[in-house]
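Pilot study result, target chain (290 residues):
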Amino acid sequence: MRVAPPSGSRVAEVIDAHVHVWDPRRLRYDWLAGTALDRPRLPGDIDDADGAVTRWVFVEADVAPEAAPDEARWVAGLDWPGLAAMVVAADLEAPDAGERIERAAALPLVRGVRQLLQDLPGERLVAPALRAGLAEVVRAGLVFDACVRWTQLDDLGRLLAGSGDGTTVLDHLGKPPVDEGLRSDAGRAWLASLRRLARHERLTVKLSGLPAEARDAETLRRHGPDLLRAALDLFGPERCLLGGDWPVSTGADGGTTTAEWFGLVRDVVGRADWPQVAAGTARRVYGIAG
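Predicted structure:
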């Protein structure tokens, strides 16, 4: 399934705003052990949606905490002409978080940082240490990518309430309950939390990651469009951006290709708003020129 441009129009740019690369031979990724993903995933391997994608935003891949600077330098040194921006790992709770963020920001393509929050208890999400780290992200002029589960969305809202003028990107629609669907009790709870979160005007949402949350491709096709449409209605195309989450959500190890996922998103977004979601928002949020 190719992500084709509208009939009679020039080819619309597609920026994949969420892709991972890694090499377990060089750096430690504990979560990969024993999985089909436990092998090098390099720029030349990336699923580019049948050639539709020409630029990518690298997002840190949960490398061992002590190796975060090494991962950033390794990615920056790869032969990857399409690399447009980097979201690197940072421990925002560390006492020297400000210094770590400052060093990361010195790499030319670094536009944001991420600390995986999806497994943190609620009290840590709103604790002073994380708030202080987020303040350092804002001070450095970087974007904060927030990866949380849907049950954590209200805690994320409380964290962002004191973040000032910082820009935050919610990864993967906040990991909604794809298997249950929007009309389930869990789906309605996700929507209510997302609606509250959308009041933060400097928050954008990545239309990404749902294939990894679905039990199978049929469940994704059945429930994915409703969840995508709900997020699009709340945030609007100006605050939505496109991500494949390769190779976790799309690629040879899953049941969904990047082209199939982008096609599903495009069917929901519509032709008129596709250029904004496919590239425009990513350009603005991550400062991608050209």
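One observation from the pilot: Residues 29 and 69 are 14 Å apart (CA to CA). A full batch analysis is planned for the follow-on phase.
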